[in-house]
Write a structure and sequence with these properties.
Layout (H helix, E strand, L loop, with lengths): L1 H12 L3 H40 L4 H18 L14 H18 L9 H7 L2 H17 L5 H9 L11
Helix pairs in contact: 1-2, 2-3, 2-4, 3-6, 4-5
Length: 170
């Protein structure tokens, strides 16, 4: 990125504005790609814990904390600098999850669910993907409705709807 900024400065100083605009576009693309990479990373963590919750039918405090942290980080990263638009819009999550993240989450979760009892393919076969997608989308939709300050308390209400979260206080 340092080279791009140097090239941008030189392009502006030399009045090569088309070159400068091309560099700005490249920098914007790099920024978006980096943000999407971070979002996918936190999305994978979210999915791993939702998979563990579904298969093991329990919810530990550390899983709840990881889910909450993932959603809060996604909320922070997803909103663009203008605070009015997003890198991933509310109706784009399902495609992003299905196309790029869920298989990695299943593979990693297979190492953790019931202490590695299932292979990746076994876990994929018994997992209710639709339920995982629905639950993930429910949590992700909260990021568009609630402020970062309100979000943790709202999420606590949703934890009670997860297996093992019925009678817990978070």
């Amino acid at each position: 990125m340092t080279q791009e900024l140097t090239d941008l400065r030189n392009s502006i100083l030399e009045a090569r504005y088309q070159d400068a605009l091309a560099i700005v576009d490249e920098l914007e693309g790099m920024s978006k790609k980096a943000n999407l990479r971070q979002i996918k990373s936190f999305l994978k963590i979210l999915l791993i814990h939702l998979i563990k919750n579904q298969i093991e039918q329990r919810l530990t405090n550390s899983w709840a904390a990881s889910i909450r942290n993932s959603i809060r980080e996604i909320q922070e990263i997803n909103i663009k600098e203008n605070k009015k638009s997003y890198y991933v819009n509310q109706d784009e999550w399902e495609d992003l999850i299905e196309e790029e993240v869920v298989e990695d989450a299943i593979a990693d979760a297979s190492l953790e669910v019931m202490n590695g009892k299932y292979t990746r393919s076994q876990l994929a076969a018994i997992l209710d993907r639709n339920q995982i997608l629905t639950t993930a989308n429910t949590f992700l939709s909260l990021t568009y409705t609630y402020s970062p300050k309100e979000l943790p308390a709202i999420m606590d209400d949703y934890f009670s709807q997860l297996a093992g979260g019925e009678n817990r206080v978070f």
